[in-house]
Amino acid sequence: MARHPWKGLVTACAAVALVIGPTALGASAAPSPGPAVDVERAAPAQKVDPEVLRALQRDPLSGVSGAVRAQLLFVLHRDDAALKQIESTLAAHPDGLLGHRIALWVYLSLHRYPEAERQMRLSSPYHPDVSALLVRGIADPHLRPSAVEVLETSPALVDLRHDAIVHALFLVALRENEHALAVLGEFAVNGDSATPQLLWNRAFDPIRNDSRFMAVLKKIDLPYTPEKSDTP
After folding, report:
1. Are residues 118 and 130 in the same domain?
2. I need a labelling partner for 192 at 20 to 30 A (CA). Which of 27, 28, 40, 220 fits?
3. What is the pLDDT of residues 124-143, one digit of tens each?
4. Could you give the C-alpha distances from 173 to 56, 109, 148, 178, 196, in angstroms and in order?
């Protein structure tokens, strides 16, 4: 499988975020409640790439570094800072697909659905109308069943379905949690993905405590200790 040139940077940055914490990313407020991280297990020293830190510090508004920084702020529930960062990055690099894909999830989390749909269209230049149906299904429960059908059957979204983590991410966003866990379960045994960093996306929070989700993290060697849950 072809390696995306930014994949290593994004994955390493996610590990860095768990070590250096939100303050080093330019956020001063206390973090919002979220899954607790076992820092010593989640990001051992060998995973902290000094090149990543230097890249973020040297040029925070570069196309990749700025988008990655926005993604980390988003993961850490720093919504205002994430929004500011991604909008600055997109203003400087309007053609950056990575930036548009990260902006999509930032806007979705803020329930700013028109902006999210615009980002979906910009990040899916070959099938913008079909891809936009997913955002409309996330926004409107009445449109959700048709959006799920499009996700599962449309030839235009076959590449999306081929990446198990991306596929599962949209399934969870569309409230298809069991289906998403089944996709991830198959991935944990037989699958592959070019986007492991998306496992930090907050859209996965509804299933993050599930043992099947933890099996995926174990497969790709990303130890992560979720908050304790009262449900099995």
Report:
1. no
2. 40
3. 989 999 999 999 999 999 99
4. 29, 10, 10, 12, 17
Residue carrying the six token digits 């200790």: 225
Q: Residue 66's pLDDT is what? A: 83
- What single-letter amino acid sits at 96? G
Mean pLDDT, rounded, for 49-75: 70
Q: Say which DSSP state 218 is in.
A: H
Each residue's pLDDT tens digit, 94-111:
999 999 999 999 999 999
Its pTM stands at 0.75
> Which residue from 232, 231, 197, 202 is spatially nearest to 217, judged by alpha carbons?
197
CATH number at residue 18: 1.25.40
**Cα–Cα distance measured from residue 95 to residue 78, given in angstroms and rounded to the nearest whole number:** 24
- Asked if residue 173 lies in contact with residue 143, where contact means CB atoms within 8 angstroms, the answer is no
Instruction: Write down the pLDDT at residue 188.
Output: 84
Whole-angstrom distance, CA of residue 110 vs CA of residue 119: 14
Domain of residue 141 covers 126-223
DSSP H or E segment with residue 168: helix 164-173
Q: What is the CB neighbour count within 10 angstroms for residue 51?
A: 10
Distances (CA, A) of 39 to 202, 203, 222: 18, 21, 11
Same-domain status, 18 and 62: yes
Boundary residue ending a domain (104, 123, 142):
123
Asked if residue 230 is part of any domain, the answer here is no
